[in-house]
Amino acid sequence: MHLSQVNEIANHRITEGSEYGWQCYPDARMLDYESLFAYISIIYSTETQEIYEANVSIKTDAWDEDMRPYRWLNPEYKDVMIAESKKRNVKWRKAWDDVKWCDLEVEEDFLEKAEAIFNGQVFDARIQVPIDLDNETLLKLFTEAHKRDITLNQLITEILQKVIDEHNE
User: Model's pTM, two decimal places?
Assistant: First the structure.
């Protein structure tokens, strides 16, 4: 994810910025954005403009429903951030008080949710997950989806939901 992408979805509404004090991210700074509906915070590289961490949280007085805050962590730096959190005795899954982050794996998922929340729009609260399939498995899934007259995404969603349900039982 790149700084320009977040600037665009947040309409360049930067409200604050500072240096980032932890060592897990090289050449890091923080930026905060604010709208009538939400806050976005990012930590990014001043050298490459690559984002290390991004989060969006609602303004509780602007939404009728209580929503969890969403966060995206750059997978290349996630382990070092977790290690530094543990070293500093900071619970890395905790956003604040008893609220946990809803961590997103796919940057497009974060960007879509953050833009909608920031602008007070309805959004798809389902979490996107990356799936890496070999060609043979992919062909079998395409064939099965075709037989059922549904999309590949619908079929994979059904399969994942079934696995989740079985795990919960």
Answer: 0.82
